[in-house]
Amino acid sequence: MLDPAIAQERCAALLDLARKNGAEAADAMAVGSMSESVEVRLGKLESVDRSETADIGLRVFVGSRSASIHASDLTDVALAELAERAVSMAKIAPLDEYAGLAPENRLSHAPFADFDLNDPFEPSPEWLREQALQVEDAARAVVGVTNSEGGSASFGKSCATLVTSHGFSGTSVGTSHSISASVIAGEGALMQRDYDHSVMRHAEDLPDCAIIGKTAGERAVSRLNPGRLKSGHMPVVFDPRVGGSLIGHLIGAMSGPAIARRSSFLLGREGEALFPEGLRILDNPHRRRGLRSRAFDGEGLATAPRALVDNGKVTGWLASCASARQLGIEPTGHASRGAGGAPGVSTSNVHCEPGDRSRDELIAEIEDGVLITELSGQGVNMVTGDYSRGASGFRITGGEIAGPVTEFTIAGNLIDMFAGLQLADDLRMIRSVNVPSMRVDGMTIAGE
To answer: 116, 178, 295, 332: which one has the fewest Cβ atoms less than 10 Å from its Cβ?
Structure first.
């Protein structure tokens, strides 16, 4: 994998070349990664894969014009060609009054905080194979499971280095470990599939393989013999593994570039009480071993925990430097980028604070409703907030889960859905976006 010291040196060399070719300002980013995975199926080895990548990108500024370019060749000859092309492209690029590096007085500087993202344990292929076998065996042991799509275990490591012409230099290194199982229950046309998986920074934080496998098997079996829902309006409970997508739509609508383009359903609603009183959604880039923890953002600004929603109100927009200039606000440390292209905007470790009632209590109040465990399709209009997605899950009758249902659509508007959110107390910090079970009343169901 790309060595951090080499990444720093290559980025610095690329910036020198860019200045020699006429760039007035520039930044360079090198990204390296390696991954290894083992998959098994029906107790036999299916595949062993290993990959390594290294890319370097350059963004240059000539006045108010800019261009970016990237390559996977880090040799001196390749970097010289990269710098020459980037500056030539910038000279004929359109004017952009908002383009530029981050303000120098806002840059973060070393030493950077360590959030324990790098696990020193690097598993062997034999270790990964044993994990994959264990998770699949546990899934296949569930009564009713008839076939397997496989069990897998993987390890990855990444290194990202950012260097700017005005004084920033930083590198982040992190690891990831994952296990998963996907199995089939039933026979013929009645077959149902489901899965479970886990991703952690450190191997010791992964759940036991038997738990992941058993959950995958039980989920598949629980979906057998699904019924259909009649069209109408009813309460909907979102399981945590799908409920995070609602927060994802919120984050997309809070993005500074979306606000600047006037393509967000949150336009004009900053400071409004869009959620129930007391509800908080937090973004914490400093969580120890967090899947998206980071000390600095994609432009070299320091990151900091913040509330995205506080007491039911959106606290402001998430801005890179360019979108901040366009909106007349301060950048928020949410810039994100890869080796190529200009910075975008992303959050880090997000969670919605839980409610004070159990999921069973939320469900017990529902006479006729549905628990959603799977969503499909992309039917969300980010300009209007209109929401429509395919779904499957479990019927709720008389305050209890009655059986699986499938092939229906749920619809509403995100503004109305946010306003009516009721939260359970079952929050678990196992994803990059974590939510408890979430109940929304009065959604439109399109079924039979």
So the answer is: 116
